[in-house]
Amino acid sequence: CYRENILKTAKALVEDTKLLVSGAASSQDKLAQAAQSSANTITQLAEVVKLGAASLGSDDPETQVVLINAIKDVAKALSDLIGATKGAASKPADDPSMYQLKGAAKVMVTNVTSLLKTVKAVEDEATRGTRALEATIEYIKQELTVFQSSEVPEKTSSPEESIRMTKGITMATAKAVAAGNSCRQEDVIATANLSRKAVADMLTACKQASYHPDVSEEIRERALRFGTECTLGYLELLEHVLLV
User: Fold this and answer.
1) Taxonomically, which superkingdom (predicted)?
2) CA 103, CA 242: separation in Å to the nearest integer?
3) Topology given in CATH for the domain delimited by 126-243
4) Which of 14, 65, 82, 193 is the most buried (most CB within 10 A)?
5) Does the fold of domain 126-243 match that of domain 1-123?
């Protein structure tokens, strides 16, 4: 029942995505209508996903987290898409903002597809862990793309905060190795959820610290390079766990 509702609402959201993209080249009224329609649809989708997560029962909180994370990714992608649509409105086809819009639309569709795969996997206990790991790998890759962009963070933090956040990576690494050894679905799901947060927190703290006023250009470049290398190394670890 929940799966059918989620599928139907997700399809409607994909249609809204198409309208948003085409709306950038049309009138402000059509663009506003598309944005409002997508906002309504994502609200409905979030509700049916939450109901689906609740139906799993409290015995499996990690899988509930996987579902909630999947809808959060879709909501974030939609927010980015609406922002990109506003930036591209009334611009010529070869304007850089149009390429950003296409990129945002692609991420949006990727995340909707990922949500549907996750919903399907939830019904099959044998594939839950694998799917959770795949979704986390995709999420980390998207976070790394944001990290590597030239966008300056809204706020800065101290180098100490960045160092503190690396401890989460150490814990998640130990959890990933243990999950690779046990191959238990619940361990893999827990690893996926922990890895997702640990890497995202590390990337955020690293970028904020690298833009601290006391940090030189040279140190900033090194910090950003090491943040990227750490993430790529962790992705390789998760790929190995997935293979196992």
Assistant:
1) Eukaryota
2) 27
3) A middle domain of Talin 1 (1.20.1420)
4) 193
5) yes
Task: Identify whether the C-beta of residue 92 lies closer than 8 Å to the C-beta of residue 28.
Answer: no
**Residues 60, 20: Cα–Cα separation, whole Å:** 37
Question: Computed from CA positions of residues 233, 239, 243, 244, in that sequence, does the dihedral angle turn out positive or negative?
Answer: positive
244 residue type, one letter: V
Neighbours of 110 (CB within 10 A): 16
**Nearest-CA neighbor of 189 among 58, 69, 62?**
62
Domain ranges across the chain: 1-123, 126-243
As given in the structure block, the two tokens for residue 86 are 């506003």
Q: What is the pLDDT of residues 121-161, one digit of tens each?
A: 887 878 889 999 999 999 999 999 999 998 899 999 988 88
Angle between helices 128-148 and 61-88 (to 10 degrees): 30
What's the pTM value of the predicted model, to 2 decimals? 0.83
| Own/partner long-range contacts of 233-239 (Cβ < 8 Å, ≥24 apart) | 234/140, 234/169, 234/172, 234/173, 234/195, 234/199, 235/137, 235/140, 235/141, 235/144, 237/173, 237/176, 237/177, 238/133, 238/136, 238/137, 238/140, 238/176, 238/191, 238/195, 239/137
Whole-angstrom Cα distance, residue 162 to residue 203?
9
CATH class label, 1-123: mainly alpha
Instruction: Let me know if 94 is exposed, middle or buried by CB neighbors in 10 A (0-12, 13-18, 19+).
Output: exposed
